[in-house]
Design a protein that fits this description.
Strand content: 25-35%
Number of helices: 6
CATH superfamily of one domain: Gcn5-related N-acetyltransferase (GNAT)
Largest sheet: 7 strands, mixed
Strand order of the largest sheet: 1-2-3-4-5-7-6
Oligomer: single chain
CATH topology of one domain: Aminopeptidase
CATH architecture of one domain: 3-Layer(aba) Sandwich
CATH class of one domain: Alpha Beta
Radius of gyration: 16 Å
Order of helices and strands: EHHHEEEHEHEEH
Structural class: alpha+beta
């Protein structure tokens, strides 16, 4: 098989680089829509120094715990940072982990980069890390993420009704899951 785990047709997954990436990610944190799509937490813009500190802390924690794999998503042409994807909260005994993905700049969304990154990480998580299942969280108001995950084979497993208060109304929070056997079948 001629396959590079961390290179797709248009993107590559690399280690995050605190010095190089902090300024770019800081700009993303100033976009309330980006933050809203990733988390139910209140939007909190971060300076490049704060982002760099977060990167450094995440790297130390990942080395210590061995239950997190963080990747920067970069365009192969030009090596420009466009997002991140991570597998975290891995419970090795159970073969399960969680997944989070974000494409920062709205101009980089809807080009298939997220799908390409997801495919690379699913192959890594299931074939290399030998995980049995992955889960991902999203919110009812993030219909694009819900469709994206469902097209990738994820199934809604938990629906926490009216768990998030946004935009003057209550929204459901959802956990979607994908088993290795389902991924293999659809691969």
């Amino acid at each position: 098989m001629d396959f590079q785990f961390f290179e797709g047709e248009h993107i590559q997954l690399t280690a995050p680089d605190a010095d190089r990436d902090a300024e770019i990610e800081s700009k993303w944190t100033h976009d309330p829509e980006y933050l809203r799509l990733l988390s139910a937490d209140p939007a909190k813009p971060l300076s490049p120094a704060q982002v760099k500190k977060r990167y450094e802390e995440a790297e130390k924690e990942a080395e210590k715990s061995r239950d997190t794999f963080n990747f920067a998503i970069r365009l192969r042409e030009g090596d420009r940072l466009i997002g991140f994807i991570r597998v975290f909260d891995i419970m090795w005994t159970h073969g399960s982990g969680r997944l989070q993905l974000g494409i920062g700049d709205p101009a980089d969304r809807c080009h298939g980069y997220g799908r390409e990154a997801l495919n690379l990480v699913l192959r890594y998580a299931f074939d290399e890390l030998n995980l049995h299942r992955l889960s991902a969280n999203t919110f009812e108001y993030n219909a694009m993420a819900l469709r994206f995950l469902e097209r990738a084979g994820f199934t809604v497993e938990v629906r926490r009704r009216q768990a998030v208060n946004r935009d003057g109304r209550r929204w459901d929070a959802m956990v979607l899951g994908l088993l290795r056997i389902e991924w293999k079948r659809d691969e």
